Amino acid sequence: MSTHTSLQPDFEGDVVIAGGGLAGLTLALALHKAGLSVGVADGLPIDTQLEEIFDGRSSALAYTSFRMLDAVGAGVHLRPHTQRIEDILVVDGRPEDGVKAGGPGPFCLHFDRREIHPKDDGEPLGYMAENRHTRMALAKASEEAKLSVFAPDRALHMNAHASHADLHLASGKVLRAQVIIACDGKYSTLRDQAGIRTTGWSYGQSGLVCAVQHDQPHQGVAYEYFMPGGPFAILPLPGNRSSLVWTERTKAAEALQTMDIEPFHEALRARFGDFLGEVSLDSPRWCYPLGLKLAERFIDERLVLVGDAARAIHPIAGQGFNLGVRDGAALADILVEAKRTGLDLGSQPVLSRYERWRKTDSLALVAGTDLFTRLYSNDHSLIRLGRGLGMQMVDQIPLARRFFARTAGGETGDLPTLLRGEPLSV
Ligand SMILES: Cc1cc2nc3c(=O)[nH]c(=O)nc-3n(C[C@H](O)[C@H](O)[C@H](O)COP(=O)(O)OP(=O)(O)OC[C@H]3O[C@@H](n4cnc5c(N)ncnc54)[C@H](O)[C@@H]3O)c2cc1C
User: Fold this and answer.
1) 425 occurs within a structural domain
2) 185 C-alpha vs ligand 1 centroid, how far in Å?
């Protein structure tokens, strides 16, 4: 730790966040609204991140995550662009056994939001939103809150001192705070520079992502079909549109991305079937290689990892961003309490509390997602039978169904204030 502090910073506050993506801006707004002074730096212009071609993904947002987006002022802008998820149907099956999207398979599991939120106007199981709309809503909320955003300006490195840390940006600017939060994604520069090692592997799969238009309404049902090449998810968007995550071995997924439109439509119809009537492509096609990356530590001297910088997982359960939201909500509770009681926000006891809280939850989810991905991308007949019977068992037991529905909604363990839908302030 250096004691050199002679630089005149361009920003000085409680917290500096490197990375103004989905997790970074959500956390920045939460801390700012709670009364902390926050600066955010992102390497890309915010406008670029709002363009339709920037990120074709849509995300399933857990109902607890949406409570946080509401609390930070982004929910109001996002809600008109969301689709409520009322039911989730999970089917284990192979096309050669006659399993088609929209139809049943040998083993099915059905989650109904009324089982956990029985009121007619109760919360759904989650919300679907295109990432570009979520980014737009966060950008609008940041503008309204007059958040200090430095973009485009890449974080190059940080220096930890006795009472604060400095984040050095590509422009030469220096942002100073008691703690630096790395929300700079799966390939986090700050994590690597701190010498925090990661464990991980590729699944050899990629997710082809696109939006489709169909004739019939989807009724707010999200479908996930476990096929030998990987999961095929049909996720409802507003109107007669759905987002697809079509997972295949990487070569096959890349071929689907680059093939001409007519053969693609044929492949799409063969996989999708006609349960929602005629279906056609309604967006560009993107391809995301899928793997796992887990940081061995979530903290260092005056540094905290949040979101994909801490761990990036397979999208099989649609939990990556939701985990980033949970990181942010937990960290907001800890930093707000530290500020209220006059503690140094970057001190080791404060940061260790975050690591203890988030690591247990993360490890359980990382392990569960990894096991799930391996089990459900396997075509061995005994494994298929075993997992199918397990699925059937959960489907028969209301308590188990409710447990999994609440877990997907993020309502497990020690729930931070913002995920309970309660206000947070210093
Ligand atoms: C196919 C697919 C489907 C998915 N579906 C879902 C889903 O349904 N639900 C869900 O919850 N999650 C889902 N996810 C996961 C989710 O997209 C990620 O977990 C989420 O985007 C991570 O957000 P983040 O802000 O941590 O990182 P990122 O989105 O990677 O943001 C990082 C930010 O940091 C900036 N940055 C990087 N380096 C620097 C630097 N040196 N200095 C300054 N800024 C920097 C970048 O410009 C960017 O803005 C899915 C993922 C995939 C691949």
Assistant:
1) no
2) 6
CA of 396 relative to ligand 1 center, distance in Å: 36
Residue 60 is assigned to a structural domain of this protein: yes
Domain count, the chain: 1
pLDDT of residue 96: 58
Protein residues whose CB sits closer than 6 Å to any atom of ligand 1: 18-24, 41-44, 57, 59-60, 154-155, 183-186, 189, 207, 209, 245, 288, 307-308, 315, 318-322, 324
CA angle 342, 346, 350 (to 5 degrees): 70
- Asked if residue 180 is part of any domain, the answer here is yes
How high is the pLDDT of residue 223? 92
**CATH number, residue 220:** 3.50.50.60
Report if residue 419 sits inside a domain: no
pTM of the model: 0.94
pLDDT-flagged residues of the chain (< 50): 2-4
**Residue 309 CA, ligand 1 centroid: distance in Å:** 9
114: containing domain: 11-413
Residue 125 near residue 405, CB atoms below 8 Å: yes
pLDDT digits (tens, 9 = 90+) for 44-88: 998 888 887 888 899 999 999 999 999 999 999 999 999 999 999
Query: Which pLDDT tens digit goes with each residue over 154-188?
Result: 999 999 999 999 999 999 999 999 999 999 999 99
Note the pLDDT of residue 97: 65
